[in-house]
Amino acid sequence: MDTIFLLVKMILFLGIILYLAQFLLHYLERYSKPVGKNMQILDKIQVSKTSSIGVVKILDTYYLMSFAEQSNEILKELDVSEVANYIQAPEKKEPINGQTFSKILQNNLKKVIRKGKSSDEEKTS
């Protein structure tokens, strides 16, 4: 009976500690992430392990920037029209060799099924 009471007590205190830790982390998150009203990263593309290129809006001006471990550089100041075309343009997915992904997947599935059937026939022979 004592062990059951200790187990229930331990689970209860564990729940209280987890709740307090979550509450504290949520409270501290406000102070750890500065809210930038005048600066936004609109898009970012990883170029290598330690560097990337991104479109950044600072006040009302758009920049193409490179981000690296050692330095961050402004590569080009973008016009509003360039950014508007970029934002409004849907991403174009070019088919590989004229085939869509679903056709490539279907062809590969057929090959796998054929190989599976041929290996089953060899096992029964």
Helix and strand layout, with pairings?
Layout: H1 2-32, E1 39-46, E2 52-58, E3 61-67, E4 72-78, H2 80-88, H3 101-124
Antiparallel strand pairs: 1-2, 2-3, 3-4
Walk me through this protein's architecture.
By secondary structure, this protein is of the alpha+beta class. Helix content is 51%, strand content 23%. It has 3 helices and 4 strands, in the order αββββαα. Strands 1-2-3-4 form a 4-stranded antiparallel beta sheet. Strand 1 and strand 2 form a beta hairpin. The longest helix is centred in the N-terminal third of the chain and has 31 residues. The mean pLDDT is 81.
Quick synopsis:
The chain is α+β, with helices and mostly antiparallel strands and 125 residues long.
Q: Approximately how much beta-strand content do the residues carry?
A: 15-25%
Radius of gyration: 28 Å
Helix content: 40-55%
Order of SSEs, N→C?
A: HEEEEHH
Helix/strand/pairing category: alpha+beta
Q: Count of helices?
A: 3
Shape field: flat
Residue windows where pLDDT falls under 50 for at least 5 positions: none
| Strand numbers in spatial order across the main sheet | 1-2-3-4
Number of beta-strand segments: 4
- Span of the ends, CA to CA: 64 Å
> What oligomeric assembly is this protein in?
single chain
Largest beta-sheet details? 4 strands, antiparallel
- Overall pLDDT confidence: 81
Key phrases:
23% strand; 4-stranded antiparallel sheet; 125 residues; alpha+beta; 3 helices; flat
